[in-house]
Specification:
The structure is a homodimer of 314-residue chains. The first copy, chain A, is α/β, with parallel strands linked by helices. Helix content of chain A is 31%, strand content 16%. Chain A folds into two domains: 2-92 and 282-299, NAD(P)-binding Rossmann-like Domain (Rossmann fold, 3-Layer(aba) Sandwich), CATH 3.40.50; 94-271, 3-Layer(aba) Sandwich (Rossmann fold), CATH 3.40.50. The first copy, chain A, is built from ten helices and twelve strands.
């Protein structure tokens, strides 16, 4: 059995894998290098590297482990037709993303942007907009593993959490959970509207102009899911007309965000260049998931963790 | 009985007081205006406004409520000699200060300074230093009400907390508590060293050059207590020689921080101009404490909350 990595891991990590799986042959290519994909049964890669032409070459491929969370840009139907198993690293973004969301919210409430810029100009200037997170309300779109972790941390700060999902099924660390169609009723109550929704047929374009109008004038809107959740023009208008207070965006309709995009110029918009999931511990965690699944694969090929339903797309 | 406020409160807050305490006369001066202090029994003010000359004029004064936390610059001996009761607002800084500490730590770990500055220059530039709070260790000097609140929040992020106080008495939300003299043993373990110590004879100059040398090279040192905890030269040298990774300072030996102070120019030092306690909810909370104490005062003059021991200075 042969496994190909198309990204680099440390020598310690290689040794650990090779000692644990002595009957498996591992090949480690540089990032993006798919040399020898023809000969492998298992490919460990990032979602963006898998396309039709790669699949065509990879005749023996049985399992793709993507070290990404999103799979929406992968050729899912072809993968399904070829009967290739696809797993991702759902769950490993939980900690860095939840910490990023809390970092951004707290930074805004505790006036860090103004503190940082006063330092640059050596000004002893006390901000006049400092307030607290405690006692506020957050609405979390997509209270799955990442959303619930955000909810758990917000609750520790005394924030009321409202989850919003497709089914309305109660989710962890949410004071209550609502369904998508009740969003308009709850948006006016939220100080923070935070999306961590994946891109699926049901979430694309989910937020309309009316949703932004329904938010508080002081609301902080945060998109840490996918950039196709709404038409960016709606948000730009809401920010320009002060229909909402602030946006913090980690994802965009087009990434990298084009230089001419107006979001760059809006004072009340933080541009986080799709980095909320980054962490020095990323590969380490991805390998933990991979090792567990490789054990299961060798045993039986079934019951892998983080299995993607190729028709639902998550 | 007459009460003088030397700072402004809202009309709603005035009405609330006057309705609740119908036998008390309230006078509200502008901030810093001590007109009529001669005639009052109770003064509600900030610590910095109370000096010997004020005390001299305030012949009838029996109780000073300071809406500050620190009392170290007040003429405590004169207040004691005059047998004047002194109370402060210990506890009301807990939430904003703990949120500020977490904001700064998370901002650094999640690369917010670089995200903010890339926005300014419209650069889609992914930071390479993002890491997580989870799994790290924090040492908290002064695990009282503020320190314990910081500890509670850090623990929610999966951080190990070590409290350090005079007595070594177990304190809330600390995985363990050590005494000051054992500091040198624990400093090398801490990723975050956070002081919220007040200024007292025992804390002045508590941290020496050796303490900074004992910290990790990557340590983040945060002073949110008082600026006389150490000689600033020791910290400046530690930062310049990369003996520690970063400092975040809310307090300084001299405030406002003089323009010529080298701390302004160090890249690895955040200057927070003594604002970590600021909050839009500040006066509201101070009044809750004042109202409780005014009830007690009218009843019996004793058992006031947040009573300052004039000889210990806190």
């Amino acid at each position: 059995m042969k496994v190909l990595f198309t990204f680099e891991i440390t020598n310690d990590q290689k040794m650990r894998l090779e000692n644990k799986f002595r009957d498996v042959t591992f090949q480690y290519n540089k990032k993006g290098d798919t040399t020898d994909v023809e000969s492998v049964e298992i490919l460990v890669t990032y979602s963006s590297e898998v396309d039709s032409s790669l699949l065509e070459r990879a005749k023996k491929l049985k399992w793709i482990m993507t070290a990404s969370a999103g799979v929406e840009k992968m050729p899912l139907l072809e993968i399904a037709e070829r009967n290739i198993t696809l797993t991702n690293v759902r769950g490993i973004h939980k900690t860095p993303m939840a910490e990023s969301v809390l970092a951004h919210i707290l930074a805004l409430r505790r006036s860090l942007p103004s503190i940082y810029s006063s330092k640059e100009s050596k000004e002893w200037s006390r901000p006049d907009d400092s307030t607290e997170l405690m006692g506020s309300t957050a609405l979390i779109l997509g209270p799955g593993s990442i959303g619930s972790e955000i909810g758990r941390l917000l609750q520790a700060f005394g924030v009321k959490t409202i989850g919003c999902n497709r089914s309305g099924r109660i989710s962890e660390s949410m004071d209550k959970t609502i369904v998508f169609r009740d969003l308009m009723l709850e948006l006016p109550k939220a100080d923070y509207v935070i999306s961590v929704l994946p891109s699926t047929p049901e979430t694309r374009g989910l937020l309309t102009r009316e949703h932004f109008s329904a938010m508080k004038e002081t609301a902080v809107f945060m998109n840490f899911g996918r950039g196709d959740l709404f038409n960016e023009t709606f948000l730009i208008n809401a920010l320009k007309n002060n229909e909402i207070g602030q946006a913090v965006l980690d994802v965009f309709e087009v990434e990298p965000l084009p230089l001419e995009n107006e979001l760059w110029t809006l004072e009340n918009c933080v541009i986080s260049p799709h980095v909320s999931g980054l962490s020095s511990k990323y590969v380490e965690r991805a390998l933990i998931i991979f090792e567990k699944n490789l054990e299961l694969w060798i045993e039986s090929n079934v019951n892998l963790e983080n299995l993607i339903n190729l028709f639902d797309g998550y």
